[in-house]
Write a structure and sequence with these properties.
Elements: H1 22-37, E1 44-48, H2 50-53, E2 64-69, E3 77-78, E4 91-97, H3 106-116, E5 117-128, H4 133-136, H5 156-165, E6 168-176, H6 187-192, E7 199-206, H7 215-243
Parallel strand pairs: 1-2, 1-4, 2-3, 4-5
Antiparallel strand pairs: 5-7, 6-7
């Protein structure tokens, strides 16, 4: 497995229109996200990168939404996603629409997003599926220099591993848009072969407790219960002897 961090200079597109079928990808992502945008709540939401800024999130209950990125016309805050100028635990949700694809250190971006998210905050990640028609075509000569092939493609399982290390609970994940050149992505084939979808979405929540309790913690909790029960029993026995 290739390391996540790279020295390669990656230049993200300033708009979905800057790549073939980009508007199809944007519309498909927006449609897939709508059911979960309505479940988000809180005060502040960050949309990292120009591609995130173009995703329609009007259905989200979080009214204060800020577009953050290095450059672009739709941005309200200019900043590197790996160095966000916000306080720790001050943001309720973050949207990373293909943000990791053109970042040299995706781990650092995820850690920075984790820092600014509140407990039980939401992280929404989308990206290109390497095991798709779009991913396979990346090996065509000269194609890899243009978007979307110029970006990095991480498998959904790899994203899940990263989120698991940060103690996030994945509440929704899917793949879709099997045919990238088709506006509807090929509804029939997408319904039967979603694993070949060109687009990934993962919706996760930040948790403050271990999702899988360790054996050591389980044994410790049991021993504490036994000690409490024995102490109560000894107290009752001493009380009976005094009364007798």
């Amino acid at each position: 497995m290739k390391p996540a961090k790279t020295r390669q200079i990656l230049t993200a597109p300033l708009s979905w229109q800057d790549m073939p079928w980009g508007e199809y990808f944007r519309d498909a992502l927006t449609q897939q996200l709508q059911p979960y945008l309505g479940k988000l709540y809180g005060f502040h939401m960050l949309k990292l990168g120009n591609l995130s800024a173009e995703i329609n999130t009007e259905n989200c209950a979080i009214s204060h939404q800020v577009n953050v990125g290095s450059e672009g016309d739709l941005l309200q805050v200019r900043a590197d996603p790996s160095q966000l100028p916000f306080e720790s635990k001050s943001v309720d949700a973050c949207l990373l629409a293909h943000t990791l694809a053109w970042n040299q250190d995706p781990h650092r971006v995820l850690r920075e997003v984790d820092r600014v998210l509140i407990d039980d905050g939401w992280m929404i990640i989308s990206g290109f599926n390497p095991f798709s028609l779009l991913g396979i075509s990346k090996f065509v000569p000269m194609v890899h220099r243009k978007a979307p092939w110029s970006g990095r493609m991480f498998s959904q399982m790899r994203l899940l591993d990263w989120l698991g290390l940060l103690n996030y609970e994945v509440v929704f994940r899917t793949r879709f848009q099997v045919l990238p050149w088709h506006r509807q992505g090929g509804k029939l084939i997408s319904a039967h072969l979603p694993a070949l979808g060109c687009l990934n979405i993962v919706v996760a929540r930040k948790r403050t407790f271990p999702l899988t309790p360790t054996k050591a913690k389980k044994s410790l909790s049991k021993s504490q219960v036994r000690q409490t029960v024995n102490a109560t029993r000894q107290f009752r026995q001493a009380k009976d002897q005094d009364s007798g």
